[in-house]
Amino acid sequence: MSTIEAKTRVVIASLVVIAVVLAAAGLLQYRSANPQPWTEAEVAILRSLWIGSLPPLPADPTNAVADNPTAAEFGHRLFFDPRLSGTGGISCSTCHQPIRRFTDGLAKGQAIGTSKRNTRSIVGVAYSPWLYWDGRRDSLWSQALSPLEDPVEHGGNREQYAQFVAADPTYRASYESVFGEFPNLAKGDAVSRVFSNIGKAIAAYERLLLPGPSRFDAYVDAVMAGDVAAQRSAFSADEINGLRLFIGEAACTQCHNGPLFTNHEFHNTGVLAFPGEVPDKGRVLGAREVLSDPFNCLGNYSDDVDKNCAELEFARTGPELIGAMRTPSLRNLENTGPFMHKGQLTSLAEVLRHYNDAPPSMIGHSEAKPLQLNKRELRQLEAFLETLAAPLATAEKWLAPPATNVATNTNEE
Ligand code: HEC
Ligand code: HEC
After folding, report:
1. What is the pLDDT along the chain (413 residues), one digit of tens a residue?
2. Ligand 2 pocket member 247 (CB < 6 A)
3. Using a 6 Å cutoff on CB, does residue 339 contact ligand 2?
4. Which of 207, 212, 228, 275 is 20 to 30 A from 220 (CA-CA)?
5. Residues enclosing ligand 1, CB less than 6 A?
6. Quick one: how far is CA 169 from the chain centroid?
7. What's the CA angle centered on 401, arms 191 and 207, to 5 degrees?
8. Which domains does the chain have, with CATH numbers?
9. Contact 161, 195 (CB under 8 A)
10. Atom of ligand 2 nearest to the CA of 339
11. Which ligand is nearest the CA of 327, by number?
12. CB-hemisphere CA count at 13 Å for 43?
């Protein structure tokens, strides 16, 4: 073999080695930029979580003005009006602040006193058959009545609110255009009737507060379209892995499922009691309370003449509901901590550590099982949860106090 031949061979061998190394590197790069494709079954799960799967708002037959635009305008004013309180200083928006997705950034609500639990977001809440962490109300309008009379929240009473609407010319006119002639408050149950209608107007407003499409939804759009470039610009490799854990190994979709990431059901997940308090019994008491609420679906103030209240009549009340809370939507996480029913956990990282350890419940039985995820996986899961943040799909004018509130006393509309 001549030296020239030998040199050629060395050159060729080197080229082959370089080519193999380049190919391997290319493959690695391709693999990390193109993670394992989703199976058909996984794509079906992604689609079920996608905002495009959100059905139209369910009708509320118990509230005849639920979708009445004039009622929503009236409710909008009431929601932001501090005169609807015992002190003249508290409105629904004291605790449900638009800039925090209608929460307050506190462990527990604060007004005249301290609420028993963490303020829930009300974005998308019109989809839920139950209200509150323990589901102790069964409609948006009946829910709205209880903070108004709660001594630590608005601290007023129905008599005072009915008199206030009667005496304010603008409110009285709005009331009459939505509900008909203002009743004589001295007669029969007129006060409670007007009070329930105040709740119905507020509910019509709250039904407008809906979540908008997030980066996660853009990613699912891209997956369904088979558009790899769009998938890459929507989600990082970490976010994809977080999503994979969320619907797979971590089994979060057992409860956080559907386009609002909630099954609207009650579960005990073993969250520790608030320091210094006995554990909260949750749904087992909420189920009893909603059955005895005079403003429930079966009551005299419900507009559903057929009393079609199967949800209420067949509500479960068994011991599995001890310590159970209603699964919150995960589309309302940005800017809404502290988390959990008493704001026990201050960050998403703490929430994920809770699920990873899944301590036994202090009361009843926890359904959460330890996950044994490593630190990197927990970070990926958190990165995925953050992709659900998005502006509301609600016109700006509903997200601030209405201009007319300034003029409500002067009858200048
Ligand atoms: C003092 C603070 C505070 C005020 C004022 C307040 N809320 Fe709340 N709100 C809370 C807290 C705390 C919860 C959760 C309580 C619970 O579940 O036990 C809550 C829950 C709710 C829910 C249920 C959300 C869900 O997902 O279950 C709705 C709806 C709501 N409030 C609407 C209103 C309306 C309407 C008003 C005004 C009439 C109002 N709130 C006034 C603190 C407040
Ligand atoms: C067995 C049902 C169930 C499973 C499984 C589950 N959750 Fe939850 N999740 C809930 C319930 C119920 C709450 C409220 C618990 C409470 O306050 O006591 C909650 C609360 C949360 C919160 C706090 C939200 C807020 O607004 O306060 C986050 C974040 C969360 N879960 C994420 C997850 C993630 C991520 C997983 C998977 C690792 C998961 N959940 C698994 C039912 C579940």
Report:
1. 555 676 767 666 665 566 555 565 555 555 555 568 999 999 999 999 999 999 999 999 999 999 999 999 999 999 999 999 999 999 999 999 999 999 999 999 999 999 999 999 999 999 999 999 999 999 999 999 999 999 999 999 999 999 999 999 999 999 999 999 999 999 999 999 999 999 999 999 999 999 999 999 999 999 999 999 999 999 999 999 999 999 999 999 999 999 999 999 999 999 999 999 999 999 999 999 999 999 999 999 999 999 999 999 999 999 999 999 999 999 999 999 999 999 999 999 999 999 999 999 999 999 999 999 999 999 999 999 999 999 999 999 999 999 876 544 433 33
2. no
3. yes
4. 207
5. 90, 92, 94-96, 109-111, 115-117, 119-120, 122, 125, 131-133, 140, 143-144, 147-148, 153-154, 202
6. 36
7. 65
8. 46-55+212-386 (1.10.760.10), 69-210 (1.10.760.10)
9. yes
10. 27
11. 2
12. 11
Cβ proximity of 365 and 357 under 8 Å: no
To test the pocket of ligand 2, the residue of 132, 256, 280 to mutate (highest count of ligand atoms within 8 Å of its CB) is 256
Residue burial 347-376, b: 16+ Cβ < 10 Å; e: rest? ebeebbebbbebeebebbebebeebebeee
Tell me the whole-structure pTM to 2 decimals: 0.92
- N- to C-terminal Cα distance for the chain? 103
| d(CA 153, ligand 2 centre) in Å | 26
383 lines ligand 2 (CB under 6 A): no
Q: Which residues contact 118 (CB under 8 A, 6 or more apart)?
A: 103, 106, 107, 108, 109, 133, 338, 339, 340, 341, 342, 343
How many Å apart are CA 6 and CA 399, to the nearest integer?
79
With beta carbons less than 8 A apart as the criterion, state whether 92 and 228 touch. no
- Ligand 2: atom nearest CA of 385 is 35
In the reported structure, the alpha carbon of residue 159 is separated from the centroid of ligand 2 by a whole-number distance in angstroms of 39
Atom 37 (ligand 1): residue with closest C-alpha?
Answer: 92
How many A from CA of 336 to the centre of ligand 1? Answer: 14
Rounded CA-CA distance 62/66 in Å is: 9
| In contact, 187 and 215? CB cutoff 8 Å | no
